[in-house]
Amino acid sequence: MTKVLIVDNEYQKYQSFLDPKFPDVDFTYATDGDEAAPHIPETEVIISIGRWLTAEMAAGAKNLKWMQCNITGTDHLVEPLGGRRDVILTNGRGIHGPQMTEITLMHMLALYRQVRRLTKNQEEHVWDRFLPKVLDTRTVAILGLGAIAEHMAGVFKALGMTVYGISRTDRPVAGIDKVYSRDNMAEALADADFLVALVPYSEDTHKIINADVFNAMKPSACLINVARGGVVDEDALIAALNEGKIAAAGLDVFEEAPLPDESPLWDMDNVFITPFVGGRSDMYAERILTVIEPNLRAWIDGEPENMINVVER
How far apart are CA 191 and CA 198, in angstroms? Predict the structure, then answer.
């Protein structure tokens, strides 16, 4: 009988869905890594985001053959699974479009509609009818053209925006008005009112948004980072905001999380902050189960070649 370990603080949602569909699978559920640890040596399959997994745990998981990571980014598993090339790794690609689009849109509106100012005014009972900006007719450049970007582009187009894409290569993408290669990023940014970071974090995207990028942006442009903190050089961002190189930033991710109390980003009037919640939603379990169910079925049927979202590593 296949032994599957599911680690999630809302594991009950997975349990109620999977137990009836896979009666021949031996499921074990845990809320975190501490609860999971005693079960790892005998486990064949781990289903979890897996931030708790250490290299020592992975080395001791002698029966582990497949890990389903429940988010798209798997950079946090590079070190733990570095010595386990025998383990198949799959991710949650394709389920994050709605929530990532909504948080990006929220950040854009928060900056253009000056939500921090409105909130402060409400707290202080100030009636201040200032002139807000609109998204209609603006141009947004999306750095990183995956499934999320395609979903996002459709929403932006519906709002009357022009959408540029920035990718490794100059290639057509559905819903994107024009695609630029990373080498031509400055050309895309010359027209952009927003730069949205969606690239995964890796060696080649480490601080890819840096002083050169901010120098290429319009002084009226805004940065929105909903990708990973490491893709933005925060020191260069703070300098660009202070020097008026760019107008504002909406940030859901940071080089260090939680964002340290001493970070100047907290107190900057032209910065809107959310605490790494872009990929979260009340429907997350339901969406990731659309990946878990077919992958688990393929695994049980002895057809790993039919699994989706396999990560090359």
Answer: 19
pLDDT in tens, 80-120: 999 999 999 999 999 999 999 999 999 999 999 999 999 99
Q: How far apart are CA 6 and CA 296, in angstroms?
A: 12
Spatial CB neighbours of 302, under 8 Å, sequence gap ≥ 6: none
Q: Is the pTM of this model over 0.85?
A: yes
Please state whether the peptide bond connecting residue 258 to the residue before it is cis, i.e. omega within 30 degrees of 0: yes
Structural domains in the chain, sorted by start: 3-95+282-306 (3.40.50.720), 97-273 (3.40.50.720)
User: How far from 34 is each of 28, 51, 89, 313, CA to CA, in Å?
Assistant: 14, 12, 22, 27
pLDDT tens-digit map of 113-170: 999 999 999 999 999 999 999 999 999 999 999 889 999 999 999 999 999 999 998 7
